[in-house]
Amino acid sequence: MTTTPRQPRLLPVPAIALWSGQQVRTPPLRIAPDGIYHEGSENRDVDGQLWPQVHGPQAGVPQYAVMNPLKQCQAMEHLLCQVGMGPATRTEQGLLWVLPRPTGSPGDPEYDWDQGVTTTEPPVCLFHARVSAHQCPRLSTRGHVAVYVREAELVAVEGTYYPPPPARARSIKTVLPVDAPDARLMVAEGLARRLRAVTLVDITDRTLAHGAVPCNRRTRKKDR
Question: What is the separation of C-alpha 202 from the centre of its chain, rounded to a whole number of angstroms?
């Protein structure tokens, strides 16, 4: 008797992951003393920060270690789950985050929650937290730390800074405070939040995850 081989279970790809069929491009820029502008249509966030463009379909192979800058911006601005792009889990203890476990080395010291931990990783919903922990290369190889966060201030923007004229200096990759005047001369690549007032949580606890539903699940009429 011939049996049909069982198909592998496909886990959802994090929404913020860039696909191999996509490319991040910065159109030609006009650089002025008061800021930089795309020559043509622009991508700006709610604060007026300029972002690159993402071209191509979500096809090919997902690049889990590379974030789609536009999706990352959307998730960080609106505190959406990085996997499903629905609302991140929020409890009395705060919003849920899953971060890479630090190595404890000088270049990657243990988290200092009293001072705050700055991250470009968006939050997650409880349902997708395990997906994020097991599929993200950094989380699966280094382990993860899951926390509920009561304070998550938007503090910085990463990107490429273009010195204004008449300077002839080259563009540089840097990180600036979100309210820095020079941020107007940057093409952003990611937003960062500083996480404080945290409560550690075990996302492998089946009791905790009981009843959790995908953040992007469509509401049925009978559920309303």
Answer: 21
